[in-house]
Specification:
Radius of gyration: 29 Å
Order of helices and strands: EEEEEEHEEEEHEHHEEHEEHEEEH
Mean pLDDT: 81
Low-confidence stretches: 1-34
Helix content: 10-25%
Protein name: TFIIB-type zinc ribbon-containing protein
Structural class: alpha+beta
Strand content: 35-45%
Keywords: Membrane, Transmembrane, Transmembrane helix
Organism: Flexivirga alba
Number of strands: 18
Shape: flat
Largest sheet: 13 strands, mixed
Number of helices: 7
């Protein structure tokens, strides 16, 4: 191709180096949906969602099953597939993943982090870590990264639970939650001035399993005896123990585990329960205009570090029920996991992050149910004032009591 045939360089944001000339974007078939309105950038391995009416950006409109242009109000119906989200055998999937990683050791994905050139304004956009959908910092164009989603060294996303809570509803939830924090500093309550509030899909793994557990333990039965003489005569409850063993079966469905790091894990867990049954097969259309991350810890890691513990707790409850009696002791447990399957899901969260006195505080909103969980700082001034007020009230009460005697 001669220089005359190349397209002119894209306009550059201030203080950014000139990117090399790019070929014109091409439309490619999307395996995840029919007639996807996305525009694909082959050179950058990214996709955007331009409005067909005005050229602005389309966003997934929570709760309305459409892509919406906030500039002209045009709505584009979703063409994403519907149906149940399939699950895969965990052991087989992890074995295949290890084989693909070995095969692509010298030619595969070099790094999770990557910079791409925005096809709208030419500015450089950074994808850090497992971030797969972001917005151009110069023109706010939503950009989705295809290479990480489809990399053979990564487990694919199986399903997505779409946002149902829009920005106005989420904002109202945040305001209500913050205003109910009586001892939060006044500055924290004005978070709009220095906080970030965004919608993001976080990565989760959900597991199904059938287990068979052999156990050995003891069954305790209470009985009473009368001991002592005279004034010391009394009844004591004692326990008679019997050795026992047996086998129990458990069935688990949708045991869910967060798969992203860098977040307040305890508060993320407290966003549960999630209506997993409403999840749909993954389509990037649901992510349009929202941030998104894939997993930081893979399906095997999250099973061993989280989901297995949840299952083990339920198994021990089943064992105690099987042992019966008044008390139970469990000495040995051997569990076989049969039909252990999983799926990677994207679940919707509204996230507020506020840095107060040099410390970050995160507040999360379940993007379907509206459940709010988070942490906030404590106002030393308000706490001191409350303590002083309490002391004054106690002193007044004591004075009144003394004067009325």
């Amino acid at each position: 191709m001669t220089d005359e045939q190349l397209p002119p360089p894209l306009p550059q944001p201030v203080n950014l180096p000139q990117p090399p000339p790019l070929p014109q974007p091409a439309r490619l078939p999307d395996p995840g949906a029919l007639q996807d309105p996305a525009q694909f950038q082959v050179s950058e391995e990214t996709r955007t969602y331009p409005c067909p009416q005005c050229g602005a950006n389309l966003f997934y409109d929570p709760g309305h099953n459409q892509l919406l242009c906030r500039a002209c109000g045009h709505g584009e119906p979703l063409t994403a597939p519907h149906g149940a989200v399939g699950k895969r055998d965990l052991q087989q999937a992890m074995h295949q993943l290890a084989q693909r990683i070995a095969a692509n050791e010298h030619g595969g994905l070099k790094s999770l982090s990557r910079e791409v050139v925005c096809q709208n304004c030419g500015g450089t956009t950074s994808f850090e870590g497992t971030l797969t959908a972001t917005k151009c910092p110069y023109c706010a164009t939503p950009i989705q990264r295809n290479d990480l989603q489809q990399a053979p060294e990564r487990l694919p996303i199986d399903g997505v639970l779409p946002f149902q809570l829009d920005q106005d509803a989420a904002h109202a939830k945040i305001v209500e939650w913050i205003n109910s924090r009586w001892f939060a500093p006044r500055e924290f309550k004005t978070y709009r001035e220095f906080g970030s509030f965004t919608s993001i899909y976080l990565s989760y793994f959900t597991y199904d399993a059938q287990t068979v557990t052999d156990y050995a333990g003891q069954r305790g039965e209470h009985y009473t005896v009368v001991v002592g003489d005279g004034d010391n005569r009394h009844t004591e409850t004692r326990t008679r123990w019997w050795p026992t063993s047996g086998r129990v079966n458990n069935t688990f469905h949708d045991v869910i585990e967060p798969a992203n790091t860098g977040l307040d894990h305890k508060k993320v867990v407290e966003l549960e329960p999630w209506p997993i049954q409403a999840a749909q097969p993954y389509s990037p259309q649901y992510v349009a205009g929202h941030l998104s991350r894939t997993y930081d810890e893979d399906a095997q890691q999250r099973f061993e570090r989280g989901a297995r513990g949840q299952m083990d707790e339920q198994i021990r409850t089943t064992i105690r029920r099987d042992i019966g009696g008044d008390e139970q002791q469990i000495h040995q447990v051997r569990t076989s996991f049969n039909a252990l399957t999983f799926a990677q899901l994207l679940l919707p969260v509204w996230l507020m992050t506020v840095t107060f006195e040099g410390r970050p505080f995160q507040v999360f909103i379940n993007g379907v149910t509206g459940e709010v969980q988070g942490r906030r700082p404590w106002s030393k001034v308000k706490i001191a004032a409350a303590v002083i007020a309490a002391i004054i009230i106690v002193a007044i009460v004591l004075l009144v009591v003394r004067l009325t005697r």
